[in-house]
Automatic annotation (TrEMBL):
The keyword RNA-binding does not apply. This is DUF423 domain-containing protein. The chain crosses the membrane at residues 6-25, 67-86, 98-119. InterPro entries: DUF423. It comes from the Bacteria.
Amino acid sequence: MTPQIVLITGALFGLFAVVLGAFGAHALKKIATEEQIKSFETGVKYQMYHALVLLFAGSYFETPGLVLYYAFTVGTFLFSFSIYGLVLSSATGKKMKFLGPVTPLGGLLLIVGWISLLLEFL
């Protein structure tokens, strides 16, 4: 994986974390419960954490590993975006329950990404 792709992905995740965080802080408060807002914020935090990890990996490694890149990218997407979908669909009364099992799958991929990062250092 080229560092440029990793950096672009990290920058896009960071950008959308800020946009979605602002949405959650303002627009979501009108339709969601406090618990739903906290869940949404968890998705935003994890998205930003992993945006920063991708920016680091793209800057630090000459050729970031494929497992590292895909585990963090797909894991972040599945974890955070499933939370966004669950919160938004629940807040509008049309909960997409099929997203429930997606969140832990994303979390598992994030763990794989962190293990891959550790192995890159070793």
